[in-house]
Amino acid sequence: MRFLFITHSAFSQYSCYKRAIGTGEALTALGHEVYILVKDCAENRTRIGEEAPHCNPIYVNGGIFREIVAKLRALWRVRPDVIYLSAFSVHNLAGMHFLFPRARSIIEFNELYSEYPRKRRNWALWELIALFEHKYILCASMFLVRHFSEVSRKYFLKRNIVYLPFAFPDYLRPSRSIHERKTILFMASLWKGYGIYEVLQAFELIVRKEAGVALEVIGKGEEYERVKEWVEEHKLNDDIHVCGFVAEQDLNEHFSKADVFVSPMHDTLQDRARCPSKIFYYIPYQKPIVTCKIGNPFDVLGEYGFYYRPDDVEDMARAFIKAIEACDDFAYPDGFVAQHSWASRAKELEKWMTNE
Q: Which domain holds residue 279?
């Protein structure tokens, strides 16, 4: 089959675009022909060259009108069997599937934007339009599968909906790391809603009792400077390392020295619906992951997660201690890690399209 992934912007700005290069490269190993429509920038050229060397990138530039025209021309030239929209937007040719009726068109949902306070009605309408336009719906969480199945029934739409979460790239392979302190690693955009302050407060509770524990924070965002000020104010500079943005190719070095990973969640519809891609980045390192029994992380980790009650800093601290105590002997069962690779996701996607 001939696949064409449609993306927009730099890959680092949207975690869903990782699927294009991860699944795309894995599909080529299965004998498929893969094209990726992608913004022409240094980051994307590097990422495709390193992570998807057997795919066929089609680089586009310019404003939105020029971008749309370039993408339409590429579609007419490639004539794919399967069109994959990593996100539903005008940049990704939303509303234009009627121009390519013979191609099977997949739309991915990895969050429920209609549950966010801002522009809720606009997003609800946008999601509904996407559901009407596309027969094939790929959901990154089971919550989204249930949600869009229910909406489809409500509007008498017959849709082929599959659950296919994110995965980890091949270059994330644990290497031996010698470090004196047990290290907890947090990676996310530094926004209040992503749990950075809960992690800082929980860590402060344990570092006073547990000598030899460190916290590494990876990511940038609007709270970046405030996070560094918080560390300074609480005199934890020797215990907390705020790294800022770390390039994709350098993540392995940081992850390999982690003894515990943390992925905070909140008991909200937004968090129940979304699929945190970092969970899958952590899995290859076979170390405890501290999170909540909410949504996709619980669906994926099941009995192998280390859980705390949402928004309960003291309970997060308890989960940290439990995870630290277990980290040296922790391991997933045989086959668990491979199950969450892009190669595994590509086989599931191939099966989905072949059996249709």
A: 182-329
Bridge partner residues of 185 (DSSP): 216, 261
Mean pLDDT score across all residues of the chain: 92
What is the per-residue pLDDT across 289-302, written as a single tens digit (0 to 9) for each? Answer: 999 999 999 999 99
| 152 shares its domain with 14 | yes
355 pLDDT tier (thresholds 50, 70, 90): confident
32 and 52 share a domain?
yes
- Whole-structure pTM over 0.85, yes or no? yes
Choose among 105, 55, 57: nearest CA to 82.
105
The phi and psi torsions of 239 (rounded to 5 degrees) equal: -110, -25
| Closest C-alpha among 191, 259, 267 to residue 225 | 191
In terms of Cα–Cα distance, which of 211, 195, 208, 309 is closest to 261?
195
Query: Residue 123: which of 132, 115, 134 has the closest Cα?
Result: 115
Instruction: Answer yes or no: is 280 within a domain.
Output: yes
In the chain, how many domains are there?
2
Residue 287 DSSP one-character state: -
pLDDT (0 to 100) of residue 349:
97
Say yes or no: 231 and 294 in one domain. yes
DSSP E strands in the chain: the ranges are 2-6, 33-39, 56-60, 82-85, 104-109, 136-139, 160-163, 182-187, 213-218, 240-244, 260-262, 289-291, 306-307
Tell me how far apart the alpha carbons of residues 62 and 40 are, in angstroms, rounded to a whole number: 9
Q: Compute φ and ψ for 112, nearest 5 degrees.
A: -110, 85
* Residue with tokens 């069962």, as numbered in its chain: 333
C-alpha torsion angle, residues 127, 115, 187, 109 (rounded to 10): -20
| Together in a domain, 104 and 196 | no
The rounded distance, in Å, linking the Cα atoms of 355 and 145 is 19
Q: To the nearest whole percent, how much of the chain has pLDDT over 90?
A: 73
